[in-house]
Amino acid sequence: MDTKTFKRTLQKSDRYHRRGFGHDAEVEDTLKTEYQSSLVDELRAANNVLTRGDVTIRLAEAFGFCWGVERAVAIAYETRTHFPSERIWITNEIIHNPGVNDRLREMNVGFIEVKNGEKDFSEVGSGEVVILPAFGATVQEMKLLDDRGCTIVDTTCPWVSKVWNSVEHHKKRDYTSIVHGKYKHEETLATTSFAGKYLVVLNLDEARYVANYVLHGGDREEFLAKFVNAHSEGFDPDVDLERLGIANQTTMLKTETEAIGKLFERTMLEKYGPIELNNHFRAFSTICDATQERQDAMFELVEQDVDLILVIGGFNSSNTTHLQEIAIERGIPSFHIDSADRIGLDNSIEHKPLDSDITTTTDWLPAGPLTIGVTSGASTPDKSVGASLEKVLEIKAAAAVPV
Ligand code: SF4
Fold first, then answer.
1. CA distances (Å), 38 to each of 43, 65, 73, 117, in order?
2. What dihedral do alpha carbons 71, 77, 79, 85 form, nearest 10°?
3. Is the confidence at residue 400, as pLDDT, over 90?
4. pLDDT tens digits, residue range 261-311?
């Protein structure tokens, strides 16, 4: 499929919308009521530091809903207002936050089911409305929905679209896109659907393996086994690593994306020399500002005197997980939760350690004075943060009362 032409044609269609429907004023109040928190507002007004009893809360400078997520959620709410009686679907979670997705379910938005590992669009009828989430959808899904005559409401974040443009650029010039991301993540699946030849690398270690192959060759079968499912069809490492372009899943750790870009630039420079470099290497800055700001704020937070860090966001949210990685690297105890419900008033917390299953820790808030650092991922509403902090304050206040 000529993905670029298809996308252009789709964008001109009357059944395609990507800017909302002019109901923004109507949904603004609803969004405020449902997603804001007075405690978080109070913290903001107090320069992100608040002390109550023996608890000091230090909130990261940048945290929570990014504008891309806010925009996607607002457009989804507007869609319901604009099509009050039509059947509305969404191809995936609108964002990685269980509370927000549950609210859409309550508003009678249907989520496309996954059956045997495949999305099942069989229930979506001609003329029905389908929302594409903030991290986009594959070009094949868009085509299927367009062919079926659906009305498409595209909330894809413009930063994600920018990455798609990069991989289109690589494809046109016959570069292989090296995508820093998780090959199964919805955003990366969407990005690679627009790419020509591509290889998804998860981290710097995988990138080093590829760079070494570029310079010295290696075991082709081992390479293909290592990156099984993470490359384009027919990808051949002996042929398809001569011209490389860099792209990324927008929520990956910025420092790692930059390091991977530099690694491949050095690799191609060593292999082809400075005069030929431009014919073998392309990189555009596609790291989203919001991800970058939240990560930078976390690096500042871990420099402060905090006893532990609470990280709030969906367990499948890539950018939230990366925030916790920063706390772990600094050796600060950290707890990743996806909602305030995970905190028990008996001073227990159900949380997800990095790369492990959800576990329960008791007495997670130590007795006596406590400074707690707090951050939240780009898809976490302030309300979740506020409700979690209210519980922390309640537990500590109860512990301070003499028995
Ligand atoms: S994190 Fe960045 S790319 Fe993702 S939705 Fe937010 S602004 Fe867009």
1. 9, 16, 20, 41
2. 170
3. no
4. 999 999 999 999 999 999 999 988 787 888 889 999 999 999 999 999 999
Is 190 touching ligand 1 by the criterion CB < 6 Å?
no
**C-beta 250 within 6 A of ligand 1:** yes
* CATH number given to 67-157: 3.40.50.11270
pLDDT of 168 strictly over 80:
yes
How many Å lie between the centroid of ligand 1 and the Cα of residue 67? Answer: 7
pLDDT at 390: 97
Please give the CATH topology (third level) of the domain spanning 159-287: Cobalt-precorrin-4 Transmethylase; domain 1 (3.40.1010)
Give 37-65+290-400's CATH code, choosing from 3.90.76.10, 3.40.30.10, 3.40.50.720, 3.40.1010.20.
3.40.1010.20
pLDDT tens string 348-395: 999 999 999 999 999 999 999 999 999 999 999 999 999 999 999 999
Q: Name 78's Cβ contacts closer than 8 Å, sequence gap at least 6.
A: 20, 21, 22, 23, 24, 26, 27
Of all atoms in ligand 1, which is nearest to the CA of residue 378? 1
Return the number of other C-beta atoms located less than 10 Å from residue 104's C-beta: 22
- Closest CA relative to residue 367, chosen from 336, 403, 397, 331: 397
Q: Are 154 and 94 in contact (CB under 8 A)?
A: no
Q: Which two tokens stand for residue 391?
A: 């519980």
